[in-house]
Amino acid sequence: MERIIRIMAVLLMAVLLAPAAATAGQLFPDSRVETKLPAGHVAYLGLADEATSFRFSDIKAEYLLVNVFSLYCSPCQRTAPAYNEIFDKIAELGLDGQIKFIGLAAGNTVREMEFWRKQFDVQFPLIPDEDYVLHEAFGSVGTPYYVLVRVNGPDKFDVLFSREGAFDDKDDVFDTILSHISTDLAASE
Predict the structure, then answer these.
(1) Nearest CA to 103 among 79, 84, 127?
(2) Which CATH number fits the domain that encloses residue 100?
(3) Domain containing residue 43
(4) Mean pLDDT of 58-75
(5) What is the pLDDT of residue 2?
């Protein structure tokens, strides 16, 4: 019995000390990303040519929409096509200069991430996170996880919206994203 109590105490401490997922109004980690992106993705993000490392604040955008996923997550697989459609709709509205998308492949190697890109025809940048370093900076969130932030400069992000878990209605998610951006823009005027 004493052993069970000790185990429960350790588990409770682990939960209490773990970083929490970002929620609206909280700050967002300006993590350093170490990866080589294709030239088109470097240009899309507005990074210096041949960048092999960057911080999220280096991305030239007013807003950043990050999708944390895993190749082995079936809800992630179900929502990948819908997330791609949201990306396409943002571009169709001409907002792709303001809102940049990034996928974070939690626990996935470069090879697994590239399989995901081909399997789901992903057009936005994906970042492998084989050792879960970035995933931990995000609070070790469940997958899929989506977070929309306003970029204000180095270490200055405001979380406008976050969601953990699969979504059923891509139009509702798209409308929610636009609603948060509209509200944010109105508040900053």
Answers:
(1) 127
(2) 3.40.30.10
(3) 20-188
(4) 94
(5) 61
8 A C-beta contact, residue 120 and residue 86: no
DSSP state of 58: G
Query: Residue 153: left (phi > 0), alpha (psi -120 to 50), or beta?
Result: left
pLDDT at residue 6 in the model: 45
The model's pLDDT over 112-157, given as tens digits with 9 standing for 90+, comes to 999 999 999 999 999 999 999 999 988 999 999 999 999 887 778 8
- Other Cβ atoms within 10 Å of 89 Cβ, number: 16
Please indicate, yes or no, if residue 109 is contained in any of the structural domains: yes
The pLDDT confidence band at residue 36, using thresholds 50, 70 and 90, is: confident
Residue 31 lies in a domain: yes
- Those residues whose C-beta lies under 8 Å from the C-beta of residue 62, and which sit 6 or more positions away, are 98, 99, 150, 151
Query: For residue 87, which of 103, 72, 71 has the smallest C-alpha distance?
Result: 103
Query: Domain count of the chain?
Result: 1
